Amino acid sequence: MSSEKRKDVNDHVCLKLKRIERNELPESTHDSFDPFDIQKLQKSLTHKPWILHNRAINSAILDCEHVDHKVTAHLRSDEACKLELDSAPVFRPTKEEFENIVKYIAKIRQVAERFGICSIVPPDSWQPNCRFKESKIWETFKFQTKVQQISNLQISKFDKFKRANRDLTMELDYRRDGFECRNGPEFSLQTFKEYADDFEARYFEKHKFGTPVWENIENEYWRIVQNPTENIQILAGNNLDSNVFGDGFSSLEDDRTECTKSGWKLDNAHKLPGSLHSFDSDGSAGLSTRVDIGMCFSSHCWKVEEHNLYSLNYLSIGASRIWYGVPGKYNSKCEAAMNNLFRKHITQVSPSYLQSEGIPVYRCVQYPKQFVLIFPGAYSSGFNSGFNVCTRVNLTPFDWLPYGNQSVEIYSELHRKTLISYDKLLIEGCRDTVLKLKRDSEEWKVICGTDGWLSRALKSRVKHEHLRREYFCNAAQSRIMDKHFCSLVKKECVVCYYDLYLSAASCSCCPERNTCLEHSKQLCLCPWSSRIFMFRYTMDELNLLVNALEGKLNALFRWAQENRQLFVNDRKK
Fold it and tell me: How far apart are alpha carbons 516 and 518 in whole angstroms?
């Protein structure tokens, strides 16, 4: 990078930080360093990579003319933490296999699901245009970065760095990915790449040793996490809205190639036939594509996808991404091991530790123009080996249904908000399938019939709904839901956040508040006799849909008679 360009980048970054003058120094920092001790101050600023690396700063609080800030941390090969891991499978579909994403995932699932994670290398014919490289996006669009303090991921060992020299002028909050999250500067993709490349070159001393391979970066990453010797903070743009950047692929208006129509284009993936989200009539349960912009060492800590959803990740441009996956069958065991460490404030767990607990961990290295697929219930984590841009989306093929059903009840027990309405997806999927799918076709046998994915999922939900109504409701106080209930906004129980698509309880004293049937007594202080129980469908209607889905002729005929309007609307489309 030229000195002029670096100055522009530094000027851009510097303006986003608020300098703390002498009379503004937070009280909590006085124990951390003496503001007149230049050596300690230099050390405190060394590994904040957005702060000028080699530009002189006129610091009013130091009574000196210049302070030179350099990246003095560097690769410590002699202290490397090398991982001994088996590799996740790599699949290379043919052009024909690659044409249908849902069928291909179903084809590889029995093999790949045992690893929790796999990579998919598209055929040579897959040559999508990368929209991120367009000058309008590359040079103009700005995104907000977040600070990731990599050396604090195991703060029980390294707590002194957590509390030293913190910039309290930035607002703090805590994210689910394990990082204490503060806003960093804004960047364009171009300026962030320049900054990220400069940081990497200095840290690994490329002028001496050349470009490091991903194995060396991995060893150093886990050395920093497990045995930190410096306070190392980096930046990342995570979970960005694709409405700004797009999914990285050119749109149909810009590009008429087959890639823009493909299910592997992430904005298309979750709405394809064979996906439950293709039945979502109003889009309220849609799962949008998200964008992650990273640099060397930027990370995501161990997590399971919301609602145990599939996650499809595409690396558009940049350096490789190193992933780690734990198969879904070890979910409970992995969660117990993680919780034990989380209580000690350790948020990034070494794969070696999980292996010592009898939990298999597999490594997956993702390169540009490749996909990584994470299966339902699998734990995953990872980090980037350099600047890159990834896009991701959650998928809901029919084989996800058992995992979705499980997450509904677990979220309720934990009093945790739901991201999607599982019952809405399921019911609309069943109704649409009965309406459109030819009975006794191959697809019908897989998803319907007596043992299909939809049939089993619907029977389970109907049985559960029947029990709740029988134990918690009074028939005399029951009525059919207003057709507009849940029509625009997903309704949730005010106690446990249970999705209220199928049933809900209310009281005239607080019409804007609703609970699930189980928590109706906690809605208000009115007598229980004042409760109103609302049902979207009667049990007879739900059981009729079960029988129609299983292919029973009398049930199909009766269902068709009672839902004639659906057929009329379908013909109009």
Answer: 5
Instruction: List, for residues 124-148, the tens digit of each pLDDT value.
Output: 988 888 888 888 889 888 999 999 9
Q: How far is CA 282 from the centre of its chain?
A: 23
What Å distances lie between residue 450 and 441, 460, 557, CA to CA?
A: 14, 13, 17
Measured between alpha carbons, how far is 218 from 518 in angstroms, rounded to an integer?
A: 49
Domain that holds residue 511: 403-572
The amino acid occupying position 81 is C
The C-alpha angle 187, 192, 197, rounded to 5 degrees, equals 165
Is there a domain that residue 26 lies in? no
Domain count, the chain: 2
Q: What is the mean pLDDT of residues 482-495?
A: 86
Residue 391 inside a domain? The answer is: yes
Decide if 311 contacts 373 (C-beta within 8 A). yes
- At residue 531 the predicted structure's pLDDT band, cuts being 50, 70 and 90, is very high
Does residue 301 share a domain with residue 173?
Answer: yes
Instruction: State the pLDDT confidence band at 277, using cuts at 50, 70 and 90.
Output: confident
What is the DSSP track for 452-517?
A: SHHHHHHHHHHHHHHHHHHHH--GGGEEEPPTTTTTSS--B-TTT--B-SSEEEE-TT-TT--B-G
Question: Residue type for 422, please?
Answer: Y
Place of tokens 């990034």: 348
